[in-house]
TrEMBL record:
Pfam families: UreD
PANTHER family tied to this protein: UREASE ACCESSORY PROTEIN D (PTHR33643:SF1)
Lineage: Eukaryota, Metazoa, Spiralia, Lophotrochozoa, Mollusca
Protein name: Urease accessory protein D
Transmembrane regions: none
Keywords of this entry: Chaperone
Family named by the database record: Belongs to the UreD family.
Organism: Biomphalaria pfeifferi (Bloodfluke planorb)
Keyword Chaperone: yes
GO MF terms held by the record: nickel cation binding
Length: 303
């Protein structure tokens, strides 16, 4: 029987740099060509852990898994992690399973802060499994991204309504997620999701029959093929008589920012799905165009 551990503070740091070798750089196109990457620094403290499998994929992209020992995040945990990707290389940050956030007693809060630093001409894909907040969980997550004008970013953040087998539907106390993206120290994106019951409306009532919620950011000149693919798939105008999908809602917008004369473009996507099957359709649209670059699909045999 699983015995819940006491809340604790954990942190981690990992740095990926391009390997100086005779290997030929590889990439999807000339705008997104990178060298073989290697981990040059890694440290972590319990309960947090960075796992770097040796044979997770083929190709030059380095795969990194963030993990928490003890089955998930206990109420009151404080986690802080930093991922740094050096110039000219690519990295994937994922998880081996869903991030479980257990209940918080009294007024306690579980916090997780992750900082990402992406070097010139590099690619970072943050493609984790969904977060699952258990009943009475109180989760506050912050993700901060530092980019350069030539950096490339794919950042997916998504969550499930709870443990469906136990009839937990949006039964947490609060879920707060803040995402900030900086280019050359200039803030270009600040996105915040804050879900909690109010006297007028509960989260469960507001979500109705939807059980999956997600957001996606795609930024960088080397990722225009992905942004255009998603825009072409989900931004198409529907005819007046087209049937409305009651199980999947996707909203997408192109994005453009100018920082010190440099244009940073991409797209911003949000989705609501009634179940994992419908959510998987969106996830697969995202990852299918990235498999060649990543050297594999991080959601293979998961969805």
């Amino acid at each position: 029987m699983f015995r819940e551990r006491n809340p604790t503070t954990g942190d981690g740091y990992i740095e990926v740099q391009a390997v100086q070798s005779g290997d030929e750089a590889e990439g999807k196109n000339k705008e997104l060509t990178f060298n073989k990457a290697n981990v040059v620094s890694r440290r972590h403290t319990y309960p947090f852990h960075f796992h770097v499998p040796e044979y997770a994929n083929s190709g030059h992209c380095k795969w990194i898994y963030s993990m928490s020992y003890g089955g998930g995040l206990v109420g009151g945990d404080t986690i802080s992690a930093t991922v740094k990707v050096g110039p000219g290389c690519a990295a994937l940050v994922s998880t081996q399973e869903s991030t479980k956030v257990y209940h918080c007693n009294y007024s306690g809060e579980t916090t997780q802060t992750t900082s990402y630093d992406i070097g010139d001409g590099s690619l970072l894909c943050v493609l984790p499994d969904a977060t699952v907040c258990y009943k009475d969980a109180n989760f506050n997550q912050t993700q901060v991204v530092q980019m350069r004008p030539s950096s490339n970013l794919v950042l997916l953040d998504w969550m499930l309504s709870g443990r469906l087998a136990l009839n937990e539907f949006w039964a947490f106390k609060r879920y707060k997620n803040s995402i900030e993206v900086y280019v050359s120290d200039e803030l270009i994106i600040k996105d915040c999701t804050d879900l909690a019951d109010t006297p007028q409306l509960t989260v469960s009532q507001g979500m109705q029959h939807f059980h999956v919620y997600g957001t996606l950011f795609v930024l960088g000149s080397g990722l225009q093929f992905l942004a255009q693919h998603l825009l072409g798939t989900y931004a198409r105008k529907k005819n007046y008589n087209d049937a409305h999908d009651q199980n999947l809602i996707v909203s997408i917008s192109p994005t453009q920012y100018t920082v010190n004369g440099d244009l940073i473009s991409g797209c911003y996507l949000r989705f609501l799905a009634s179940d994992m099957k419908n959510a998987a359709n969106v996830i697969q649209e995202i990852t299918s165009s990235l498999v060649e670059i990543l050297g594999g699909d991080p959601f293979e045999r998961k969805l």
